[in-house]
Amino acid sequence: MEVLKWTTADFLDKGVSEPRASAEVLLAHGLGLSRLDLYLRHDQPLTPEELARFKALVLRRRTGEPVAYLTGHREFWSLDFKVTPAVLIPRPETEVLVSSILEVFKQETENGKRKTETGIEVGVGSGAVIIVLARELDRTRWLGLDVSGAALAVARENAQRHGVADRIAFLQADLLAALKPGGRFNLLVANLPYIPRPMWEELPKDIKEFEPRRALLGGEDGLDLIRPLIQAAPGFLHPGGWLALEAADGQARRVVELLQETGAYEQIEKIRDYQGIERVIRARRRDY
Hints:
Rossmann fold; single chain
């Protein structure tokens, strides 16, 4: 379609990231088609109504507004998730956080039978991580915490859409402050705000100006929330339970040091993402 060529060139001129992909996704969304169907009707002209809808999306994308917010959807773990400006857009690297939990769960499964487990995610956002874990580990029950009521509303809707709402309870809370310690959970997972302020200042416009600041900025060193969670988590994990955290590029070594300083963890591991960045830190609560 000529409109795709023009839009791609326009996005490129305006400095829009991923100009061709942005144009394709927005046109497909505006027409109610898949990207494949878009090419099957490449020679079909747009109606005035279709063109008006597409132009409105193009104007918003020019300002830097993320494609996921324009379409209201983002794929994660091959599942479609609703996203709004109230939640961070799920990233491919966060799939490593999911796989790190699945790996230890499967390693500790006895005699090929899954045990009933209880897990908690701190900072659920759209619910992508906790929902995938609930689907993959079909005998687990989960508690999802987030400080944002608007984010929890999105997560609840996604849990309903993906058939796991009966095994996930959601609660508005600041980290673990709303819960009493008691070693109730086998798994604790968190993708908290971890961007250090200097890195925050350099983020692209479509992230810095559109995604929720409090879901990204983690203070001067990026560890304002990770630090207290590491200290509190042993009080909520069963002996032998696992903690998995996502971190920024260059942060993993300090996160490992924080875990070691508590004396409460063993088997501390750094796990690289698809780009070779040490993205996830996984640790086991000591048995004593």
